[in-house]
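writing this on my phone so excuse typos. first protein, seq and then structure
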Amino acid sequence: MRQIILDTETTGLDPNQGHRVIEVAAVEMVNRRLTGNHLHRYLNPERDIDAGAMQVHGITPEFLADKPRFADVAQEFVDYIQGAELIIHNAPFDVGFLDMELRLLGMAPLANWCSGVTDTLAMAKALHPGQRNNLDALCKRYGIDNAARTLHGALLDCELLAAVYLALTRGQESLSIGLDAGQARRDAGGSRNRPRPVRAQASAEDLAAHAALLAAIDKESKGACLWAATQGGL
């Protein structure tokens, strides 16, 4: 199974207001193992970067001035993700930006190039409702070292997210779905060979003591003893 852990950095928060992708990073994982095959590009957005966004990722227009545009790397990008499942934290944000970039080039949206998108933020919220589930909080919760993450950076965030995703899905590979059909049948059939449980029978004295206790409870509660009623009354 081929999966791509993906992250972007942008000039702002809303692609519908003309904001653009300025960094895209993706790391490849095959059968839950990182392969070392990754894609990482800085991009010239040909526009200003919001001050708030720069405080988050530290990328400046001056740094991006000599970098390629998204149009220059678009084909390389879609070829890299072709047919893979994408793993993204807060997926609607990144997907919205990448779909806009592809739309501006007259290319098909992200869903046409990959086999699907998994949102690790949605997964984390389901597993840890009411708790902080950003990447830093998840790294702390699962004991993942994120000391190098002083600013948001797409490539580092992808590597951290890969570790978080493996922690979020730990144990799935050990589910009984991995049993072959013959073994499952043998396990099910084995239950027929187990000894039947022995049902203990109450003695006449036990039954009389039980009836007396229920009668006392029923009297004290002025007929509100429900268990006495289910026994046919006293």
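second protein below, same order as before
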Amino acid sequence: MKDYTLDKLAQEKFIKNYKVKNDKIIINLASKEKYVIPYTKENEEKVLTKMEEQVNNARIKPIGIINKFLVGVSYGALALALYLSIVETAILYFVVAFGLSSFFTYQLVSNQIKVKDLEKQRFFLDNRKLINDNIKKSPNMTLGLDKKIVTQIERSDEQKIFDINLIDSYSLDDLKKLKRNILRFEEFSFDEEDKDKRLEFHK
């Protein structure tokens, strides 16, 4: 998940993700530090619970009107600086304007990415039981998903395929498609004789 913290102190306690290796749980913190603990099922569940709490408690500071205004102004300044650099060879103006526009644009885009990621995380938490309980019931559950994602799901032997740490490689759109397919499967209630045969998806 993305870093939703607002200060450096919080980053030292914020778990972005983790991996299990050599009987250890290697936790990647928002501070870019690694926190290593012994692997036990209990420890892993504690890490997952902590990550879920982070999502439920996350508050992303919105980009204010002034910041959005500054983005527009910086682009106007960049256009003017580009003109001046051509007409009067005022390269310094262009460099300064480019730096400012890049800075404000980065802030805006970074904020939007965090908002979208948090929306995905919360959608998952609201629908994880539905997805995990039904994902293996039919190959048609993955209808419309990317082949790479379908392969990951088919190769998984775990009963619980999805958790808060494993959905970074999935988009919000992927999760919505999974939910749509599951609800449609429940609505139709068809008997599927060939469990290995997957329907084709046509846009």
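The mean pLDDT is 80. thats all i got for now
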